[in-house]
Design brief:
Order of helices and strands: EEEEEEHEEEEEEEEEEEEEEEEEEEEE
Structural class: mainly beta
Largest sheet: 5 strands, antiparallel
CATH architecture: 7 Propeller
Number of strands: 27
Distance between the termini: 10 Å
Number of helices: 1
CATH topology: Methylamine Dehydrogenase, Chain H
Strand content: 35-45%
CATH class: Mainly Beta
Oligomer: single chain
Low-confidence stretches: 1-20, 148-154
Length: 404
């Protein structure tokens, strides 16, 4: 489930799309571990270094990246770190010392200890960022998920960030965790929709999430001195859904923010001040969707003009440069009914990610898959964006979400 973002860097990538010149998101890790004797199982790197996308099988990689995926590359586009929420590996596909259990607790015990298919069951709940002005040091930040019978029938929530600092100069370049930490929130927050964006100074990072049960944003600031916050801002998205899987995303220039997590067919667009870290000008968007599915995704075009909403059965485009964003809604396509042979459910559109090649890759959810859909020309209005369903075929089964 990213997320299932740098979407994020990647490499938090994931989540950020305000990164541009650096190559932090130029290699995405997807796939399943080689736990079955089949050529269709194993890891794959989506490599954007070069003139066109390359899909590279990496049989030596064993870390599962089924739903929540965070990763980061160096400035030259080489994979440095990646995680599935259970543990963190380096770019040589080796466990980072001190990172074998990054989310200790009942959820880790229930899912990550699964010897057949270990993974952490969340989307867009983790990210990896470089420590500003600190060569070779990174911060890994995640939401330690908890089950709650108090909050809406065993849904996931979290009360704090959990993280670790990694120094890649240690262990002969293999990396090592140099300390772990946690940052408590004043309120429970959603365990999904974790996003980050470059500060206006071009060095530091804003990290954003919002309350689980109130209309509040929370922000952290990452500088060379570490993390500060969280600070609170009111006026966040209304609480109309607590169980949907969604996505938060910044526009490439960081001036706009969108989030979607609702089963009722709504998304939220806001302006973002990269200097103060404050949001303004909330717009609520409505669209048709199927209420029996809650897989959702959002992505901005490279020029920041168009917002694409993937709502299970539908893909929509909104023009965020207009004052009446709602009236600009265009239905780009509906699901073509494709499903795996013998599988009772159709494939649904889900998490999206803007890639270094200027295309938006749309994850597909429902069973083990080898295909994603692609928006080939996202800067173009309407169907001229050239959306092609199931047009990317992986050499192995892929996870359902691009790394975010």
């Amino acid at each position: 489930m990213k997320t299932i973002l740098f979407n994020l860097f990647l490499c938090f990538l994931c989540t950020y799309q305000c990164i541009a010149q650096e190559k932090f998101d130029y290699q995405w890790m997807v796939g399943y571990p080689p736990y079955v004797d089949s050529s269709l199982y194993g890891a794959c790197i989506m490599d954007f270094n070069g003139d066109s996308l390359k899909l590279i099988k990496v049989p030596e990689a064993t870390l599962v990246t089924v739903l929540s995926t965070a990763s980061i590359c160096d400035a030259n586009g080489k994979l440095i770190l990646y995680s599935n929420g259970c543990e963190i590996h380096n770019g040589n596909f080796e466990l980072i010392e001190g990172c074998q259990n990054i989310n200790p607790g009942i959820v880790w015990d229930s899912y990550c200890n699964n010897t057949t298919l270990p993974f952490y069951p969340t989307v867009q709940s983790q990210l990896i960022l470089p420590i500003p002005i600190t060569e070779g040091q990174y911060i890994y930040l995640t939401h330690k998920e908890e089950f709650s019978q108090q909050y809406f029938n065993d849904n996931y929530y979290t009360e704090f960030y959990q993280g670790t600092n990694i120094d890649m100069s240690l262990n002969a370049g293999k990396g090592k965790s140099i300390n772990s930490f946690k940052i408590e929130y004043p309120d429970n927050v959603k365990s999904y929709n974790l996003a980050a964006c470059k500060h206006a100074n071009g060095k530091d990072w804003w990290i954003i999430n919002f309350s689980y049960n109130s209309e509040k944003f929370y922000r952290l600031l990452l500088t060379k001195d570490g993390l500060s916050g969280p600070w609170e801002q009111s006026g966040g998205p209304p609480r109309d859904s607590f169980s949907a899987l969604g996505q938060s995303v910044f526009s490439p220039n960081g001036k706009k923010f969108a989030c979607i997590y609702s089963t009722s067919g709504k998304a939220w667009v806001l302006d973002f001040d990269r200097g103060s870290g404050l949001f303004s000008n909330l717009k609520i968007l409505d669209f048709e969707t199927k209420k029996d599915w809650n897989y959702r995704g959002a992505a901005f075009s490279p020029n920041g003009k168009y917002l694409y909403i993937a709502a299970d059965y539908y893909l929509y485009q909104f023009d965020t440069d207009t004052t009446e964003i709602q009236s600009s809604k265009i239905l780009i396509d509906t699901n073509d009914g494709y499903s795996l042979p013998g599988w009772p459910f159709y494939i649904s559109f889900g998490i999206e990610q803007l890639a270094p090649d200027g295309k938006i890759y749309v994850g597909e959810f429902s069973g083990g898959l080898r295909e994603w859909s692609i928006i080939n020309k996202p800067n173009e209005k309407g169907t001229a964006c050239d959306f092609k369903q199931h047009s990317l075929l992986f050499p192995v089964y892929s996870n359902a979400t691009p790394p975010i």
